[in-house]
Amino acid sequence: MQPRPPQYNSGDAASGYVGRRRPDRAQELEHPADFLYGRSPEPDYDDHYDSHSGDAHLDDHDPDHIYGDGDMYRPSGRRRRSGLIAAFAALIVIVLAVGGFVVIRDVIGRFGGDDPTDYAGSGTTAVSVVIPSGATTTDIAGILADADVVASSSLFLDAAKGNASVSGIQPGTYVLKVQMSAASALALLLDPASRSVFKVVIPEGYRIDQVVAAIADVLKLDPATVAATAGNIAQVGVPAGFEGATSLEGMLFPATYDFGPATSALQALQAMTGKFASVMASTGFVAKAKALGITPYEALKVASMAEAEATNFTDWSKVARIIYNRTDQGEPLGIDSTSVYEARLAGRDPMSIDYDVPTPYNTRRTAGFPPTPIGNPGQETLRAAVEPAAGNWLYYVQTDAAGTLSFTNDFKQFTVWAQACINNGWGNC
Asked: What pLDDT score was predicted for residue 166?
């Protein structure tokens, strides 16, 4: 916007002067040159101000002109400022015009303009494109246009119109190609083989060291880095209700996880604890544990022990009941799986455990629950821990090769079953 021209008033008719100020103000000063150096309000001049009070012609373009008592005449500061403002305003107009052109050009390039030209064929060089979680079809179209996979967003939206399968495009990293036809790009996005996925499978009962190894192996991460991250509970975060936990053991929920190629150890671990938190919420685990008179963390320990001890899911709730019964009576749990867990984490041979040596995880010698869960139980085992079967059992032992457990509160019956288990080499004796 150009600056408005000076507005002149009618001045003093008696003096015959028309302008912003009356020149007779200068006559009140000791030196007329005070106008020039800021010692008093200064007069303004047009490009050529002609003084009609004398014969002298004041040309503000003449640097050698002497004004008043010998001071060098200088152009008015206000005129110079007005010129700078005008130049600056003109520069802004130019910048805005150029910027507007660039924005309009980019918008036209992204959304196709009036007459977008589609690329032909299946594209040229490969390019990885990340589709974030929650992306709409319009979002995906913009991402593809920005990556030059398609010529414009509008072309992709046209290709996707009426295709119900578009809503099934999963978040993740896709290997596409530069300058594909919109139809070809859509076809690749709908092809599961185009999605770059790293599947990390965590079976039920996996220990934390096994989870760390699986993450490192599949995602090609340094095992030491993954282990260090898993050991930083504060960084990964503990789900609500499990504050005070000393390990992530038990909270790395067993499932199959799809990760992108750039997934970090922290992101992978948080996906697992996040899944665990979701299961806790959906099953009411925390509230049910408190109803049993134990903490959610103690119930998690019970679930992990039941997972390790029983092969058949129908036995998990019975094992949980025996653990609670023995705890209520102040009896050691006598679950050897806890000592095996301790040995394996320490890198020792589980077959050489000395059960006569008391340790925090030796539940033959140490009453109560172990310091941490001894694995990562699945959803049904978690349910069994907070919904234990009804019974007064105190003992169980494996009674066939298939892993079936038998339960009793009679110690003599237990010893008979135990001897048969040992004689037949069934394992959990």
From this structure: 93
Domain that holds residue 83: 1-111
Distance from C-alpha of 21 to C-alpha of 94, rounded to nearest angstrom: 35
- Count of all residues that appear for the chain in the document: 429
One DSSP character per residue, 323-387 reads HHHHHHTT-----HHHHHHHHHHTT--GGG--TTS--TT-TTTS-S--SS-SS---HHHHHHHHS
Write b or e for each residue in 157-180: b if 16 or more Cβ atoms lie within 10 A of its Cβ, otherwise e: bbbbeeeeebeebeebbbebbebb
Do 145 and 177 fall into the same domain?
Answer: yes
Which of these, 239, 211, 377, 207, lies nearest to 300 by C-alpha position? 377
Same domain, 324 and 417: yes
Any domain includes 205:
yes
Distance CA 401, CA 177 (A): 55
- pLDDT one-digit tens code per residue, 51-70: 333 333 334 434 343 333 44
Query: Which residues, 6 or more positions from 301, have their beta carbon under 8 angstroms from its beta carbon?
Result: 250, 369, 370, 372, 373, 374
φ/ψ of 29, rounded to 5, equals -90, 155
Going by C-beta distance under 8 Å and a sequence separation of 6 or more, which residues neighbour residue 404? 311, 312, 315, 398
Number of CB atoms found within 10 A of residue 243's CB: 10
Domain CATH code at residue 167: 3.30.1490.480
What type of residue sits at position 11? G
Domain membership of residue 106 (yes or no) is yes
In a domain, 171, yes or no: yes
Largest CA distance in the chain: 137
Per the CB < 8 A criterion, the answer to whether 114 and 176 are in contact is: no
Specify the pTM: 0.65
pLDDT (tens digit, 9 = 90+) per residue, 326-339? 999 999 999 999 99
d(CA 391, CA 344): 33
Structurally, the chain folds into a number of domains equal to 4
Indicate whether 117 belongs to any domain.
no
Contact between 418 and 410 (Cβ < 8 Å): no
Residues 317 and 409 in one domain: yes
Q: List pLDDT tens digits, range 182-230.
A: 999 999 999 988 888 899 999 999 999 999 999 999 999 999 999 999 9
Helix (H) or strand (E) holding 236: helix 233-236
